[in-house]
Amino acid sequence: VQLVESGGGLVQPGGSLRLSCAASGFTFSRSNMRWYRQAPGKERELVAAISVAGLSVNYADSVKGRFTISRDNAKNMLYLQMNGLKAEDTAVYYCNAVPQYIPGVKYWGQGTQVTVSS
Predict the structure, then answer these.
(1) Burial class for 59, CB neighbours closer than 10 Å (0-12, 13-18, 19+)
(2) Most buried among 53, 88, 91, 115, by the most CB within 10 A?
């Protein structure tokens, strides 16, 4: 099983980034997918979630209206479009998979750093 995030980097406040997560080794199309983030000294928090077919999405209040989660089941890819970035969005962003067909199992990526600073 592999979840490989990419797309992080340094961006100025108000800027945009698009994170990607490439999934392999499990049935992506039968897995709920999530983005989490963890800032220094803080607990990991759920940022956005998307259902297996992409019909249901949810966001943390802090990113509603600025971030968009999406998926491409044909390519086994998860995305997070981040607009209007703020300094408080600085964190390591993690891709998370919750296979519906394996109760109690979660998979994690290694994370990608997002830094919002002028």
Answers:
(1) middle
(2) 91
